[in-house]
Amino acid sequence: MNDPVKDQAAVPEGRPILSLRGVSKNFGAVAALTEVDLDVAPGEVVAVVGDNGAGKSTLVKVLAGVHRPDAGTLTFADREVTVTSPADAHALGIATVFQDLALCENLNVVQNLFLGRELRRARLDEVTMEIRSWELLRQLSAKIPTVRVPVASLSGGQRQTVAIARTLLGDPRVIVLDEPTAALGVAQTAEVLNLIERLRERGLGVIMISHNMEDVRAVADRVVVLRLGRNNGVFDAEAPTEEIVAAMIGASDNVVSRRAGRARSVKGEA
Amino acid sequence: MADVRAAETPAPLDLLDERLRRGDGWRAVAGGLWQRVRSGDLGALPIVLGLVVIWTVFQSLNSVFLSSANLVNLLMESASVGIIALGVVCVLLVGQIDLSVGSVSGLSAALTAVTFVTHGWPLLLSMAAALGAGALVGVVYAQMVTRLGVPSFVATLAGLLSFLGIQLWLLGDTGAINLPFESDLVHFAQLAFLPEWLSYVLVVVAAGWLFATGYGLARTRRAAGLSARSTSLLVARSTAVLLGLGFAVWYLNRARGVGWLFVSFVALVLVLHYALTRTGWGRSVFAVGGNAEAARRAGINVRRVYTSVFVLCSTLAALGGMIAAARLAAANQATGAGDVNLNAIAAAVIGGTSLFGGRGSAFSALLGILVIQSISNGLTLLDLDSSFRFIITGLVLALAVTLDSVARRSRVAHGRAA
C-alpha cells in the first residue's frame, strides 16, 4: 500500500480536496438537487444527512460518476473537473462504497479485494495478494480472523470493512460511503466507525451519507444537511441534535426537540 | 514443552487472530476436513461414495463389470461426453446454461464427415472447420444473451433444434457417413493406447509434479510469513496419488491399457482446472457467476467473460462430437442425439458444479461422466435396454441435485458460500 497522499499534487492544509458548487440535477420535472454546495478537505469526515428524498442518493451518484449534473462545478485538488462516468471518478481518486457493497459472496476476502486487478493474471500471485491484504487489513485494524473464507461467512461489519478496504487498493483521495452503518448491529457499527477514523488518519477526505445522528456525531467533523434537494445548513459535530433534525425536516416543532425541551426544563427545575 | 515452543515461534501472518482455532499436523487436517463435510461443504465426497456403491452393485450383478477389459472400454467411452461436460461446467459456473451441446456435437460430427469423406479435405482442415463452426455457435449465443438479453435457456433451446436440423440436412438422404478406419482420427479414438512404460512414467510425473508445485507454494508462503501445508502432508498426498494412479494404470494394463483419448481428456481437465483456479480469467468467471453486477463494478468486462465461456462450451461440444463420431467410425443422425445432451449436463451437475453459478470445478466433469458412464455400461452388461438406462440416470441426477440443494442449505446455515 502506498501512502495515498504521496506523489500526488499536494493540497494546502485545510483547503478542500473536493468542492461542489451549485450542483443541480433534474429528473424530468423533479429537481433532485438544486444548487448544492459541498466541501471536503483531506483528513476530514463530512456527514451528509437528510430525510428521505432529500437528494442524498443522487448526490452520491453524482460523485460516483453515475449521474452527470445538469449544472454546477466540481473542483478536485484545485482543478475544475467533469465526471461523466464511474471510470472518471475512479481515475480522479474518488472511490464510492455503495450500500449494497458489491461483493462476490462465493469468493474469499483476498479474491474480493483484488477482484478486477489481480496480480499476474496468467498465473495469479496468490501469496503477494494475501500478504498485501493482511497489511491493508492490519492498517485498518480490521477484525477479520481469516482472509481465506468466502465473504458469505463474514458479518455485515466485516463485509463493509472488506468493501472499504477494496477501494483503498486504488489509492483514492476521497471516499464516499453510502449509509455505511445502515444494516449493522451495535458492535459492527462501532467497528465501521473505527474504520472511518482510520481513513481520516490516513489523510483521506471522507463523505459519509447517513441518517443515524448518533453515528454522525461520533465521527463527523462537519454535518451538511440536505432538505428537498437543497443545502439546509452546515453544522459542526457539536451542534445539538435537535437543531440538525430541525434542519433536516424543516421544522423546529418535532418529537426530538420537544423531548429535548422537556429534558432541559426538568433539569432546570431540579 | 510444546506450549513453550509455540510461544517462541511467531505465528504465521494469517493465523494471528486469537479467534482462530489453530492446530498443526494430521489431527488438525482431519478435523478441518470433518468440519467442512459437516457444514455441507461436501466436495467430491458424495460422488466418490456414489461411484463405490455403483461399482459394487454392478460387480455383484455381473462379474465382468470390474474386469480390466471392461474398465478400459468404460474410460474410452466416457471421453467424448466428458469433453462436452467440461464446456457445460464453464457455462454453469457463470450461472448460464447451454442446452444445445448435443446438437452442436452432432453438427460438428456431420461437418467433419462431410468435408473429410465427401469433399476429401485434409483431416486437420475438416476438424478445424468443425471446431470453428462450434466457436461461431458460441459467439452467436453470447451475442443473443449479452446484447439482446435473451435468456440462455431459450437461446440454446432454439439452437438445439436448428443445429439438429442442419446436422440432418448435411448428412443427406443416407443419414450416415462412414469414416475410414485407417484415418488418424478413428485410429486415435479406437486403437491408440499408451505403451506400458509410458503410462507408468506419466503416473510418476503426475505425483512428482503435484509434490513439486505443493512444496514450492508452501516454501514461498513460509518465506512470506504465511501458514503453509507441512511437507509430510504433501509427501503423503503425492504418495497416495502415486499408489492410486499406479494401481489403476497397472490394472488397466492387464487389458489394452490407457488410451491416448482418455489421457487427452484428463489433460484437458487439468488445463481447464488451471485456467479456472490460477488465472485472472478463471477468477472473473467465478466472480460473474457469484455476482455479475459486483464483477462489472470491479471493472471486469462481463460481456467478454460470457462470450469466452459460451465459445469455450460450444467448441468443446464440437470436439466431443468429433470424437463420438470417431469412436463409432461414422457420423449419423443419432450422433449427439438422444441422451448426449442431458448426459453432459447431468455429468457436470452430478460432479458437483452448482446450477446456480459460481461454484464448481473442472474435475466435476471427469467424476460426473465416470458415474454416468458406469451406470450406462453396467446396465448394458446386464442386457437392460435404454429405457432402464434413462430411468436410472434420471434418478441419479435427481439425487445429485437434491443433495446439492440440501448441502447448499447447510452451507448457508454454517455461513459458507451458497
UniProtKB/TrEMBL annotation, chain A:
Q: Which Gene3D superfamilies match?
A: P-loop containing nucleotide triphosphate hydrolases
Task: Alphabetically list the UniProt keywords.
Answer: ATP-binding, Nucleotide-binding
Q: Where is the signal peptide?
A: none
InterPro entries per UniProt: AAA+_ATPase (IPR003593), ABC_carbohydrate_import_ATPase (IPR050107), ABC_transporter-like_ATP-bd (IPR003439), P-loop_NTPase (IPR027417)
Can you say what this protein is called?
Sugar ABC transporter ATP-binding protein
Where would I find the ABC transporter domain in this sequence?
Answer: 18-253
Q: Which Pfam families match?
A: ABC_tran
Molecular function via GO: ATP binding; ATP hydrolysis activity
Q: Which CDD domains match?
A: ABC_Carb_Monos_I (cd03216)
- Among its keywords, does the record have ATP-binding? yes
Automatic annotation (TrEMBL), chain B:
Q: What does the entry list under GO cellular component?
A: plasma membrane
Q: Name one GO molecular function term.
A: transmembrane transporter activity
Asked if the Swiss-Prot or TrEMBL record annotates the protein with the keyword Transport, the reply is yes
Q: Which domain of life is it from?
A: Bacteria
What Pfam families does the record tag this protein with?
BPD_transp_2
Q: Which residues cross the membrane?
A: 42-62, 74-94, 123-141, 148-170, 197-218, 230-252, 258-276, 305-328, 340-358, 365-382, 388-407
The listed locations are: Cell membrane
Protein topology in the membrane: Multi-pass membrane protein
What InterPro entries does the record point to?
A: ABC_transp_permease
Keywords for the protein's UniProt record, in alphabetical order = Cell inner membrane, Cell membrane, Membrane, Sugar transport, Transmembrane, Transmembrane helix, Transport
Any keyword Heme? no
Its annotated function is as follows: Part of the binding-protein-dependent transport system for D-xylose. Probably responsible for the translocation of the substrate across the membrane.
Q: State the name under which the record lists this protein.
A: Xylose transport system permease protein XylH
Q: What is the lineage of its organism?
A: Bacteria, Bacillati, Actinomycetota, Actinomycetes, Kitasatosporales
